[in-house]
Structure formats: C-alpha cells, structure tokens
Design a protein that fits this description.
This protein is about 15% helix and about 45% strand. By secondary structure, it is mainly beta.
Length: about 150
C-alpha cells in the first residue's frame, strides 16, 4: 500500500516525511493550483514544537509523493505571505511567483525589442528569473503603463 508523503522546504529548513510519515510538525497542508486564478496558493499549519517559525518572504518549495517509492514531484514553489501563530499551531500561507507579477506596476517604453526580451525585463523588475522565454516577434514599440500589472502585460 502506498503511504502519502511530502517534503516541505521553508527557507533553509526541510520537513520530510519519507522515513517516518507520522513524525512531522505539519498538521495540515493544502495546495491550490488553479488555471482560472493567476497565483497559486499554499497553506499549512505547523504544531508549535521547537523554535522554527516561518517568516514573511521565506522561499518555500512543496513536493508531494509517496514514502514507499521515495519519489517526490515538486508541485509548487513560492514565498510565505503570512505566518500567524496561535496557542498550539502556526498557520502559514503563501503564493506562487505569479504573485510578484500581479503586485508589480511599472511605467516603461520598449523600442525594437522582442517579446522574450520584454518578458525577461518585466520579470526582472518583479524580482523573478525567467527559465525560458522564446524571442518571439519584435515590437517596433511597446508601452507598459502603470495602470496594469506586469502580469497582465505579459
């Protein structure tokens, strides 16, 4: 029988349930990946055991799989938005990198630039790195107005 497991990396702390699936401070883990919503969301609750407390802007990577075959699949990478401690648990919520694109607004005019070059520059302004961006067409001019987010321009 397959035993569900996860690997949660928050900053430099790794919570891994591969060896001992029941030995974890995580009491709830939820990942929402949605095609209709630009930014994917994660929430989890940690039991208040030890001194580890996630903080805002901590890099987070969530991998899901099974303890029996040792394989994990990365389902989300993002940053912590809120960390709310209470008496027995700490609720942590965050978003994927698309959140940075949605919150970034710039005024910029590009002349004789390819679509890929514009996307790379806008992502850089949002503090993100682009894995792959095809050059695409060359725009004689493209104006990014500050009324719409970088995400919408992309």
């Amino acid at each position: 029988m397959l035993t569900p497991a996860y690997k949660l990396t928050i900053g430099n702390k790794v919570i891994d349930t591969t060896d001992e699936p029941k030995a974890s401070t995580v009491v709830d883990l939820k990942v929402v990946l949605d095609l209709d919503t630009p930014a994917d969301v994660f929430t989890f609750e940690l039991g208040n055991v030890g001194s580890f407390r996630p903080a805002r802007d901590d890099e987070t990577k969530i991998e899901l799989g099974y303890a029996d075959n040792g394989g994990f699949t990365q389902v989300m990478k993002g940053t912590v938005e809120t960390s709310e401690p209470n008496l027995t648990t700490t609720r942590v919520a965050g978003f994927s990198g698309a959140d940075a694109l949605l919150r970034t607004f710039v005024e910029q005019t590009y002349e004789s630039k390819t679509a890929g070059a514009i996307v790379r520059d806008l992502a850089d302004k949002a503090g993100l790195q682009v894995g792959t961006a095809e050059a695409g067409i060359t725009f004689p001019a493209y104006v990014v107005d500050g009324r719409r987010s970088v995400y919408l321009h992309m």
